[in-house]
């Protein structure tokens, strides 16, 4: 897990520093418990019982246990990309699908591998394969992302971020 | 049960094509008091993100964002919360069905901002994946608005010849100044 102090002092990852095939630092979360899942359900007012009522999940729905929420995974990937880009990069976009279920006891490794890097309008774009790997190597949330990293000596990444015309809509 | 379209007959009918681009009403996802600290604390702790940009005002002012921000997609969850003064949907759902799964009847139908139904006989719905595009982080006090549209509907033919539709709904979240914060593209398979 990342600490507040690490995020406060985060050193910038530059476009110049990444290369195709490079694995970026992972974020490890867990082991997750039913209480983590209940906390998320309460935070977003998702009252689906498969996420916090173990008897219902097992005996009514035939599931192995209560399940981690897709919406939680959907929030973790952008959070991970945000951390990678801090303090001055931008986690532009991420797409993903939901695959292996997350159940209590699982530890998750959120990961990213560089697949492409390119410049557009003086900004450094980095395409990534991303995902959330479970301890037994199952993939829970495979996807793709594009982040924008500062180029050494280059222009600042605009905020709010406006994608270059050539890339908008891709 | 799948309501598969007969082989050879396109599921992408003129009526289906006619809803591409259909846009729902712009609605306020946040409460009238906007984004506040306590909701932000609960949310960030639930995703286990201790980033001081979410809670340390002095530090946040020194960042490029100029103040406290929220997690990238926080605004996409605001519209799910029960609005004050409305009937308790949990109590109602379990009065109607003691075995409620917690979704059926609890989450009320979207009365505002909804899109027209896709006019198809394909009733089975599967999640085909999501895309999130980020432009700007919401800030404390921001009021958040959302507007949905059918961004695209495509036809796909399965290995067995069954035709299905891929329906992509694009929801754009903006702040009180009309600035785009993020765009959520959710794709569903209809088969």
| Distinct helical segment count of chain A | 4
As an assembly, this protein is heterodimer
* Helix proportion of chain A: 10-25%
- The strand order across the widest sheet of chain A is 1-3-4-5-2
Q: Which pair of chains forms the biggest interface, and how many residues does each contribute? A: A-B, 50 and 44 residues
What is the CA–CA distance across the termini of chain A? Answer: 33 Å
Order of helices and strands of chain A: HEHHHEEEE
Q: Could you give a short account of the major beta sheet of chain A?
A: 5 strands, antiparallel
The biggest beta sheet of chain B, please? Answer: 5 strands, antiparallel
Q: Note the overall shape of chain A.
A: elongated
Tally of strands of chain B: 5
Spatial arrangement of strands, main beta sheet of chain B? 1-3-4-5-2
Count of individual beta strands of chain A: 5
Provide the CATH topology of the domain at 14-32 and 112-190 in chain B: Thiol Ester Dehydrase, Chain A
Q: Mean of residue pLDDT of chain A?
A: 95
| Helix/strand/pairing category of chain B | alpha+beta
CATH superfamily of chain A: Hotdog Thioesterase
**Backbone structural class of chain A:** alpha+beta
Q: Gyration radius of chain A, to the nearest Å? A: 18 Å
> How many structural domains can be distinguished in the coordinates of chain A?
1
